Amino acid sequence: MDLEKYSYMSLHAHTDRSNFRLKDAINKPADLLETSLEKGLKGVAITDHETLAAHVEAYRYLNRNKEHFGDFKLGFGNEIYLVDRKDTVTKEEKNEKVKYFHFILLAKNQHGYDFLRKQSTKAWENSHFYRGMERVPTYKDELIGLMKSYKGDIMASTSCIGGELPQLLLKYDKDQSLENKMAIHEFITTMQDVFGKDDFYFELQPSAGEEQKIVNKWLVKVAKAYNVKLIVTTDAHYLSKEQKQAHKIFLQSQQGDREVDSFYATTYLFTPGELRDYFEDDLLEVMFKNTHEIMDKMEPISFEHETIIPEAHMPEFEPIDLKNVNAQVDWSKYPDINEYADSENKYDLYYIKLIMEGMIEKKQEFNHENLDRINTELHVVKAISNHFKQPMSSYFLADKEFVDIMWEVSLVGVSRGSASCFYTNYLLDIVQINAIEYNLPYWRFLNEERVDNMPDKRM
Prior knowledge:
Number of strands: 12
Radius of gyration: 28 Å
Structural class: alpha/beta
Largest sheet: 8 strands, mixed
């Protein structure tokens, strides 16, 4: 076999971002990219355990070194925990053992990456602790419902020995009953229906372990029966065979009795040649070609976007009348306060309403010093709003909402950096320091001179 021609894309690889809940991988994103390139791979997909946290860093590194990487492909995915809701909830209620099955999702395009964001967000909304560990399940019914708007934008594979299909095959290998056969059939046909027959793959992995060998054998047979394409992955948690001991020490640094040798013995980046020790050339060639197929389906995905000011939640409210706030003030001296009070934008109206209510609640004097400071700060906020063509007032309302939620469950510090330099942040209870009282200059937080230097594109 011509290894140069039939090299492969590593479609199941981890970085140190996989360590959110349990020590798992030691690969830095940049090192994963560089080592994949050095070993002759055509690309690598980052599929950390229920997190997309490494994607932007890897994207930036690759784009800063485009000439160096050439046509090397970077893919973006997620290794999720895909479970049946009813079965999982029932077992958890009885304190029974639950298998949180692994499953790989890969984005084809920008729309597909939008799916990954939504899916991962939902999984973390489902997070809970069970048997001493935080669980972040994706329930099948939620995945199926969400995929209705993204079919054709996502590819999927059966993951490692911890996946549902591998576990079903191990069970069938011991007991070839109709019940076990039908469970395999239901899983495969459901996934083919959800993702499309051309976007669902069986994942073989190199291993000296008996269970993985059994799974590989059955995957080849079942793939023919259901016309599913095979791919090879190495589930890379470290970079090379030489790092095996370092990875083991890392995994056992907090849990010394944790068994790691059997599963993690081959979870590193393999060169194409190293895989020949585990698979016949004919099968390897087919699996390599199928990783190329997946690679070719992956369109460029960008993390750059226009600045997005968050939309705050707001109750029904009546806009304020400045004369009713304080009839003694000559409000004509404060044009920016007037402009916000007369705005056609609901966020601006609610923003100025809360500011004025804050003046009253905090027993602030409606003197020129205080009102002029509010006017000045609103002028800066307006300039930023005009620059981004979005109401910056919504940003402050969202900040207030976050802080209010934090107060409900914990204590909140008196300050959040330079935000304390805005008097209006104090009036909104975003910070608890009065900028005027402590002589803090507003421009330390935001100023009009910085507006022109604000980038239009962000990641």
